[in-house]
Amino acid sequence: QVQLVESGGGLVEVGGSLRLFCAASGGTFSYYAMGWFRQEPGKEREFVAAVDWSSGRSTYYADSVKGRFTVSRDNPKNTFYLQMNSLKPEDTAAYYCAARWGPLNTHTTHTTQYPYWGQGTQVTVSS
User: Fold this and answer.
1) Percent above pLDDT 70 for the chain
2) Across residues 94-114, what is the average pLDDT?
3) What value does the mean pLDDT take over residues 88-113?
4) Cα–Cα distance between 53 and 119 in angstroms, integer?
5) Taking a C-beta distance cutoff of 8 angstroms, is the pair 23, 78 a contact?
Protein backbone atom coordinates (compact mmCIF):
# COMPACT_ATOMS: atom_id res chain seq x y z
CA GLN A 1 0.00 0.00 0.00
CA VAL A 2 1.00 3.61 -0.50
CA GLN A 3 0.53 6.56 1.86
CA LEU A 4 -0.04 10.05 0.46
CA VAL A 5 0.49 13.47 2.02
CA GLU A 6 -0.48 16.70 0.25
CA SER A 7 1.09 20.09 0.83
CA GLY A 8 1.44 23.47 -0.83
CA GLY A 9 -2.06 24.80 -0.37
CA GLY A 10 -2.77 28.28 0.85
CA LEU A 11 -4.32 31.64 0.10
CA VAL A 12 -3.68 33.18 -3.30
CA GLU A 13 -5.03 36.14 -5.25
CA VAL A 14 -7.14 35.78 -8.37
CA GLY A 15 -4.84 35.19 -11.32
CA GLY A 16 -2.05 33.92 -9.13
CA SER A 17 -0.25 30.60 -9.07
CA LEU A 18 0.22 27.79 -6.61
CA ARG A 19 2.06 24.48 -6.72
CA LEU A 20 0.70 21.48 -4.85
CA PHE A 21 2.79 18.51 -3.78
CA CYS A 22 1.85 14.96 -3.01
CA ALA A 23 4.51 12.92 -1.24
CA ALA A 24 4.15 9.16 -1.51
CA SER A 25 5.62 6.49 0.72
CA GLY A 26 5.16 2.83 1.54
CA GLY A 27 4.95 1.61 -2.03
CA THR A 28 6.61 1.59 -5.41
CA PHE A 29 5.53 5.01 -6.57
CA SER A 30 6.13 4.54 -10.29
CA TYR A 31 3.59 1.71 -10.45
CA TYR A 32 0.72 3.94 -9.37
CA ALA A 33 -1.39 6.12 -11.58
CA MET A 34 -1.92 9.39 -9.75
CA GLY A 35 -4.82 11.80 -9.69
CA TRP A 36 -5.79 15.16 -8.22
CA PHE A 37 -9.34 15.78 -7.03
CA ARG A 38 -10.96 18.70 -5.29
CA GLN A 39 -14.00 19.22 -3.10
CA GLU A 40 -15.93 22.22 -1.85
CA PRO A 41 -18.05 21.99 1.31
CA GLY A 42 -21.40 20.39 0.59
CA LYS A 43 -20.37 19.28 -2.90
CA GLU A 44 -19.11 16.03 -4.35
CA ARG A 45 -15.43 15.45 -4.89
CA GLU A 46 -14.55 16.10 -8.52
CA PHE A 47 -11.74 15.11 -10.83
CA VAL A 48 -9.09 17.70 -11.62
CA ALA A 49 -6.13 16.03 -13.31
CA ALA A 50 -4.21 12.78 -13.52
CA VAL A 51 -1.09 11.09 -14.88
CA ASP A 52 -0.54 7.55 -16.03
CA TRP A 53 1.74 5.22 -14.12
CA SER A 54 5.48 5.03 -14.79
CA SER A 55 6.61 7.92 -17.01
CA GLY A 56 3.47 9.98 -16.50
CA ARG A 57 3.71 11.29 -20.04
CA SER A 58 -0.01 10.74 -20.58
CA THR A 59 -1.96 13.39 -18.70
CA TYR A 60 -5.65 14.13 -18.27
CA TYR A 61 -7.49 17.28 -17.23
CA ALA A 62 -10.97 18.36 -16.36
CA ASP A 63 -12.36 20.88 -18.83
CA SER A 64 -12.50 23.50 -16.11
CA VAL A 65 -8.72 23.50 -15.62
CA LYS A 66 -7.35 22.77 -19.09
CA GLY A 67 -4.76 25.31 -20.12
CA ARG A 68 -4.31 26.53 -16.55
CA PHE A 69 -3.20 23.49 -14.54
CA THR A 70 -0.32 21.13 -15.25
CA VAL A 71 0.15 17.76 -13.60
CA SER A 72 3.46 15.92 -13.41
CA ARG A 73 5.38 13.35 -11.41
CA ASP A 74 8.95 12.80 -10.31
CA ASN A 75 9.35 9.12 -9.62
CA PRO A 76 12.85 9.22 -8.04
CA LYS A 77 11.50 11.79 -5.55
CA ASN A 78 8.22 9.91 -5.00
CA THR A 79 6.39 13.16 -5.62
CA PHE A 80 3.31 14.11 -7.61
CA TYR A 81 2.68 17.75 -8.54
CA LEU A 82 -0.11 20.04 -9.58
CA GLN A 83 0.96 23.41 -10.96
CA MET A 84 -1.98 25.79 -10.79
CA ASN A 85 -1.88 29.01 -12.80
CA SER A 86 -4.40 31.74 -13.54
CA LEU A 87 -6.37 30.78 -10.47
CA LYS A 88 -10.03 31.68 -10.20
CA PRO A 89 -12.33 31.94 -7.18
CA GLU A 90 -14.10 28.79 -8.33
CA ASP A 91 -10.84 26.88 -7.87
CA THR A 92 -11.25 27.28 -4.12
CA ALA A 93 -11.51 23.81 -2.62
CA ALA A 94 -9.76 21.14 -0.62
CA TYR A 95 -7.40 19.37 -2.99
CA TYR A 96 -6.65 15.68 -2.64
CA CYS A 97 -4.14 13.44 -4.31
CA ALA A 98 -5.09 9.86 -4.99
CA ALA A 99 -3.42 6.70 -6.26
CA ARG A 100 -4.40 3.51 -7.99
CA TRP A 101 -2.37 0.58 -9.26
CA GLY A 102 -1.46 1.44 -12.82
CA PRO A 103 -0.20 -1.47 -14.98
CA LEU A 104 -3.48 -3.36 -15.33
CA ASN A 105 -5.88 -0.41 -15.34
CA THR A 106 -6.86 2.30 -17.77
CA HIS A 107 -7.41 5.95 -16.93
CA THR A 108 -10.47 6.86 -14.91
CA THR A 109 -11.89 10.03 -13.40
CA HIS A 110 -14.03 8.20 -10.85
CA THR A 111 -13.19 8.68 -7.20
CA THR A 112 -14.33 5.14 -6.44
CA GLN A 113 -11.55 3.74 -8.61
CA TYR A 114 -8.81 5.32 -6.50
CA PRO A 115 -8.30 3.34 -3.28
CA TYR A 116 -5.50 5.47 -1.80
CA TRP A 117 -6.02 9.07 -0.70
CA GLY A 118 -4.23 11.83 1.10
CA GLN A 119 -5.82 14.05 3.74
CA GLY A 120 -6.11 17.08 1.51
CA THR A 121 -4.71 20.59 1.36
CA GLN A 122 -6.83 23.72 1.23
CA VAL A 123 -6.58 26.15 -1.67
CA THR A 124 -8.37 29.47 -1.31
CA VAL A 125 -8.46 31.99 -4.15
CA SER A 126 -9.46 35.45 -3.03
CA SER A 127 -12.04 37.44 -4.95
Assistant:
1) 100
2) 93
3) 94
4) 21
5) yes
